[in-house]
Amino acid sequence: MAWDWEIFCKETTTGEIIKGCLGQGGDQTYLNWLGSAWGWTLTVAMSAMVVAFVMGLIMGALRTLPPTTAGNRWLARLGTVWTELFRNIPVLVQLFIWYFVIPAIFTSLKSVPSVVMVVLGLGFFTSSRVSEQVRSGIESLPKGQRYAAMAMGFSTFQSYRLVLLPMALRIVMPPLTSEAMNIIKNSSVAFAVSIAELTFFARQSGEETSQPVQMYLAVTVLYAVSALTVNRVMNWIEVKTRVPGFVGASAAPATH
Amino acid sequence: MTKLNPIAALVLGAALIAGLSTSIAHAQSNDTLAKVKSSGAITMGVRDSSGSLSYTLGDGKYAGFHVEVCQRIVAAVEKAAGRKLETKYVAVTSANRIPLVENGTVDIECGSTTNNATRQKQVSFLNTTYVEEVRIAVKANSGITAINQLNGKNVATTTGTTSVQTLRKHERATGVDFKEVFGKDHADSFLLLETGRADAFVMDGSILAGNIANAKNPADFKIVGEVLSVEPIAIMVRKDDAALKKIGNDTIADMAKSGDLAKLWDKWFMQPIPPKNARVGLALSDSTKTAWANPNDKPMEDYAKK
Q1: Is B146 within 8 Å of B222 (Cβ atoms)?
Q2: Interface of chain A against chain B, CB under 8 Å?
Q3: Chain B nearest CA to A112, separation (Å)
Q4: Cα–Cα distance for residue pair A24/A14, rounded to 1 Å
Q5: Hey, is A250 helix, strand or coil?
């Protein structure tokens, strides 16, 4: 088949080839559109990542609270329910629930933009996975760490904030990197609820130009570039925050 | 599984390569008639769910208006080839139908392919057998009767269809501003209308009619407004295959003259059809009648000029 890369310079309504490939004054080429679709993918993925890490961190930490008081036990249960609920429903189904079902029950939510619903849906789904990783990180710490924090006179919040979480998060950086990359790829489900992101672009422009192969190729490259960038950034954070001699640092390349 | 001995593997490999090269040779020839004469089989490309035009009954069986027209064409091809042909059905999608016709996997595609100028560079179309009109479906109690009432409203359509481009063109030409929402398939787009996330659903008339017919309460919805775009839908064959194109066009012309085409329309669009025995209820439109009376393979762009 012929590889006609000029289709990216086509105007999306008139079909004319535009010089310089970027439309001006209301004109939009497929390249412009590809750019805005990439923007949507990154917006959805990054916002959902923030939601996922915040909620995952809270829920994961709650699940490891010592069962010393009734309050702690209820908080731990809340964390477990949250995790199991969002972990056991397919992400596409969750998105449909957020988009169609919940606004049908609470009608005031109908005016909320669909992108907010998608960010919450994708964020909560990923938060359940982050929560599991945070919990496993905290549980992998020797019991002595918790006792040492208590012996220092720290409150529960302080011992998590100052001792347990800084250690545990360093340990679980590799799986968290995977989650951060997954969320870029999972954001492709957003096309199902009317977000004009990369997968949407590939399906739509492929049909309009009759060149789906080129469109999917361009989109594939952008997904790979995005996920790889996230991977590099997380890796950089992992290296920068590493504490020599602590757990998790041993797998590092020998730089010291 | 037993281990393949090296000599057998070699023979098998050589046979595979030989098979591949003959299939490539086939792909390069545009003479479908000669191809089916030698192979004794013809491959028909069909769709899983293109409304009454072409759809599956399950179990590898396909039916519909275009499928039945194609079966008549295959009968004519048998007569021309002078031998009985086995018809193989291959399900195609919007994305792969053109490459599959080009590379010879499919000999004749009987689905719901719009004949447009871009595609005419890659494949050929038989004379138009069906003219699709893009219309607007709204809730019956919404009071919307024309497209200019949709300014600033949410308008649903389906990702991966030409209707998205139609809406964009209309916006640009008239300066109205739609807030487009996209369903991932027609059922989702209709759900957007049903749940009130969209005020209108813009799509091919036959699809709107089908979705309304299957709705919980069909009386809640109606199709309104002007025809937004007209698209000739035709049966697709390989480019520059004059012999097959002539047989196909002659068959269609005969059926139009004898009234068989109108009878088929009634069978697939007005009467209850399997598997659910539901009625689509789409009356034969004037534009389709005109296409039958004046056989042509004009692309969509020529319709827009009118």
Answers
A1: no
A2: 1, 12-13, 26, 100, 103-104, 110, 114, 191-192, 194, 196, 200, 203-204, 206-210, 212
A3: 11
A4: 14
A5: coil
Q: What percent of chain A has pLDDT over 70?
A: 95
Instruction: Report the SS3 class of residue A195.
Output: coil
- Give me the pLDDT at residue B13, please: 54
pLDDT at B173 exceeding the cut of 90: no
- Asked if the Cβ–Cβ distance from A103 to B188 is below 8 Å, we say no
pLDDT tens digits, one per residue of B6-46: 555 555 555 555 555 444 444 445 789 999 999 999 999 99
| Residue among A130, A122, A133, A132 at smallest CA distance from A46 | A122
Chain B residue at shortest CA distance from A100: B195
Report yes or no for ipTM above 0.95: no
Q: Which residue has the higher pLDDT, B203 or A207?
A: B203
Say yes or no: B196 contacts chain A, CB-CB below 8 A: yes
Contact B182 A200 (CB under 8 A): yes
Q: Does B306 have pLDDT greater than 50?
A: yes
For residues A90 and B303, the model is more confident at: A90
Buried b (16+ CB within 10 A) or exposed e, B218-237: eeebbbbbeebbbbbbbbbb
Q: Which of B70-79, B110-119, B250-259 has the lowest mean pLDDT?
A: B110-119
Written as six digits, the tokens of B274 are 């399997």
- Distance between CA atoms of B111 and B53, rounded to whole angstroms? 6
Q: What pLDDT score does A104 carry?
A: 87
Record: contact B188-A192, CB cut-off 8 A: yes
Can you give the pTM of this predicted structure? 0.75
Please indicate whether, in this complex, the C-beta atoms of B118 and A209 are within 8 angstroms of each other: yes
How confident is the model at residue A9, as a pLDDT? 87
Query: Long-range contacts for B8-12 (Cβ within 8 Å, ≥24 apart)?
Result: none
Q: What kind of architecture, by CATH, is found in domain A9-240?
A: Orthogonal Bundle (1.10)
**B94 in A contact zone (CB under 8 Å):** yes
- What domains are there in chain B, each with its CATH number? 31-131+232-305 (3.40.190.10), 133-231 (3.40.190.10)
Mean pLDDT of B196-211: 89
> Over chain B, what is the mean pLDDT?
86
Give the closest residue to B231 by CA, choosing from B157, B130, B87: B130
B160 CB neighbours in chain A (<8 A) are 203-204, 206-207
Residue ranges in chain A modelled with pLDDT below 50: 252, 254-256
Contact with chain A for residue B160, Cβ under 8 A: yes
| Structural domain boundaries in chain A | 9-240
pLDDT given for residue B46 in this prediction: 95
Q: Check CB contact under 8 Å for A206 and B161.
A: no
